[in-house]
Amino acid sequence: MRGELEKTGFKHVEIIRGSGGLVPSKGQISEDGKKIVIDDGTTARVTLTRPGEPDKIKALLLRPAGWKADWSLPGGYDKGEGEWIFEARGDKVVAKILITSRSNPLSCEKAVTLTSDGVKFDGCYDLDITLRFDPNDQDYPFKGKSGRGYDYKVKAK
Fold first, then answer.
1. Domain locations in the chain as residue ranges
2. How does 51-75 read in b/e, with b if 16+ C-beta sit within 10 Å?
3. Long-range Cβ contacts of 1-4 (<8 Å, 24+ apart)
């Protein structure tokens, strides 16, 4: 790829083919500057992402008071709430989960994977919960989805 930037975004951008040919393309930069998408409109699309700051995310997660988590299926067919406490154990992080909205409260511990922009882990019932950190949201700084389609929003306790 090659191109030229100006204050408002790309002045021009091209994708260089393996044969050396140039294909005029369109480029977009996200508002936060952490993602660039270059697309020639037909056969090539390139996405570049700047890594986040997992160390800052980890430090935020490890608050001793923990977090209040709310989840629901779209349409409100099923919803619940619970409390999560993230703990460092050596170089690993675990989530201590307490589901408080069921008739029989349930607790479990699950390993956490820190990503460049959030965390991933399984819940007690739900699988593949992916939360993204939004530093601009003071109420719910972590939001995301699970592999089963539940929406999650998490706030500090």
1. 2-49, 54-156
2. ebebeebeebbeeeebbbbbbeeee
3. 1/25, 1/38, 1/46, 3/27, 3/38
Strand pairing class (142-145; 129-133): antiparallel
Contacts of 4 (CB under 8 A, 6+ apart): 10, 11, 12, 13
- pTM: predicted TM-score of the whole model, two decimal places: 0.66
Q: Enumerate the β-bridge partners of residue 114.
A: 119
Q: Tens-digit pLDDT profile for the chain (157 aa)?
A: 899 998 888 899 998 887 888 889 999 988 877 788 899 888 888 887 765 667 888 989 999 999 999 999 988 788 999 999 999 999 899 999 999 887 788 999 999 999 888 999 999 989 999 999 988 888 999 999 999 999 999 999 9
Let me know if domain 54-156 sits in CATH 1.10.3470. Answer: no
Structure tokens that stand for 149 in this block: 């389609």
